[in-house]
Automatic annotation (TrEMBL):
<dbReference type="Pfam" id="PF11258">
    <property type="entry name" value="DUF3048"/>
</dbReference>
<dbReference type="InterPro" id="IPR021416">
    <property type="entry name" value="DUF3048_N"/>
</dbReference>
<dbReference type="Pfam" id="PF17479">
    <property type="entry name" value="DUF3048_C"/>
</dbReference>
<keyword id="KW-0732">Signal</keyword>
<feature type="domain" description="DUF3048">
    <location>
        <begin position="215"/>
        <end position="325"/>
    </location>
</feature>
<dbReference type="InterPro" id="IPR023158">
    <property type="entry name" value="YerB-like_sf"/>
</dbReference>
<protein>
    <recommendedName>
        <fullName>Lipoprotein YerB</fullName>
    </recommendedName>
</protein>
<feature type="signal peptide">
    <location>
        <begin position="1"/>
        <end position="20"/>
    </location>
</feature>
<dbReference type="InterPro" id="IPR035328">
    <property type="entry name" value="DUF3048_C"/>
</dbReference>
<feature type="domain" description="DUF3048">
    <location>
        <begin position="51"/>
        <end position="192"/>
    </location>
</feature>
Length: 336
């Protein structure tokens, strides 16, 4: 009996030991980590300048600055035209054209010679809500600016301060302004230099059509009033010439390089003995659009003050880059 009890105790101890060992060896349950799905960031939209369609590294909300630039033969070569996003070339008096240069993506150190205002240039400037810079004005332009139709800086009131006369040219072909002084003048007048500029329509594909590597615009039989654009394929740019001389910057000799040349016909009417004109830029009309050495006949429309080309009723996109717009009384003076 005693032996039996001892044997039973041994068996119980063995079983208890095995149970304890199994309890110790039982694997701990593994913790399951559930990954929270990451929210995908929306791709950043590429920032481009609104008037050129070119990539922008810095701010794109700068206000457009519109400067009246002299194109008299005695004012050539000018300063700062190569930096303009858009340039309008329109007849002033006689057979002399004048430039309205619009700056938004980049600014030259200075621009000039600065010339006097005309009403139709103010209308074009207002299409971009630009700060308008001039030196002098016609009676019609004076009335428009004095009634507050546009923010402006006029050299008549800042001659020798914001506007400087150069010694190597004679008046009225010698007034210049730096962009530092434009900023200073805007601050003095309380004008904002920030603006959300509505973008122009641009195209990504190459245009197709008739070749036109050279464009001639004959404003007059006089050579100084004759304009030529030459397309250089390896630079994808048009180079501009007046009276056979290439249009370059006076200080840097950098040439004007253009990606879009738009020529439009608008009604011109001489309104006074000084030869000043009224030009109808409100109605639509016909024109030619030159891009990549190709020409297309287009219709132009004034859309909220901007002259834009249309093809088959839809906006004809611009090539990214700089645009020059020549306003002529008749398309017959355009050849290629």
């Amino acid at each position: 009996m005693k032996r039996c009890l001892i044997a039973m105790s041994a068996v119980c101890l063995f079983i208890a030991g095995c149970m304890h060992e199994n309890k110790q060896q039982a694997p701990e349950p593994k913790s399951i980590s559930v990954e929270t799905p990451k929210q995908q960031e929306a791709p950043k939209q590429r920032q481009v300048f609104p008037l050129t369609g070119l990539p922008a590294e810095g701010a794109v909300n700068r206000r457009v600055i519109a400067v009246m630039v002299n194109n008299h033969p005695k004012a050539r070569p000018q300063s700062g035209l190569q930096k303009a996003d858009i340039v309008y070339e329109v007849l002033a008096e006689g057979d002399i054209t004048r430039f309205l240069a619009l700056y938004q993506s980049e600014f030259p150190e200075k621009v000039g010679p600065v010339r006097s205002a005309r009403d139709y240039y103010i209308e074009l400037s207002n299409g971009y809500h630009a700060l308008y810079v001039c030196h002098g004005w016609s009676p019609e332009a004076k009335a428009m600016l004095e009634t507050g139709m546009s923010d402006y800086l006029n050299g008549l009131f800042y001659d020798g301060t914001l506007f400087k006369r150069v010694s190597f040219r004679k008046a009225p072909h010698n007034s210049y302004i730096t962009f530092a002084n434009i900023e200073k003048g805007a601050a003095m007048e309380g004008y904002s230099l920030q603006d959300n500029v509505a973008p122009l329509p641009f195209r990504a594909d190459a245009p197709k059509g008739e070749r036109a590597d050279q464009i001639d615009i004959i404003y007059s039989h006089r050579s100084y009033a004759q304009v030529r654009y030459k397309y250089v394929a390896d630079q994808k740019s048009y180079f501009r010439y007046s009276a056979g001389e290439q249009t370059v910057d006076y200080d840097t000799r950098e040439p004007v390089k253009i990606q879009n040349v738009l020529v439009i016909a608008a009604k011109h009417l001489v309104i006074d003995s000084a030869g000043r004109r009224s030009i109808d830029l409100s109605s639509s009309g016909s024109g030619y659009l030159f891009q990549n050495g190709i020409v297309k006949q287009v219709e132009w429309k004034n859309v909220d003050g901007r002259i834009l080309p249309y093809e088959n009723g839809a906006p004809a996109g611009l090539m990214p880059g700089k645009t020059w717009i020549n306003v002529v009384p008749d398309l017959n003076i355009v050849q290629w």
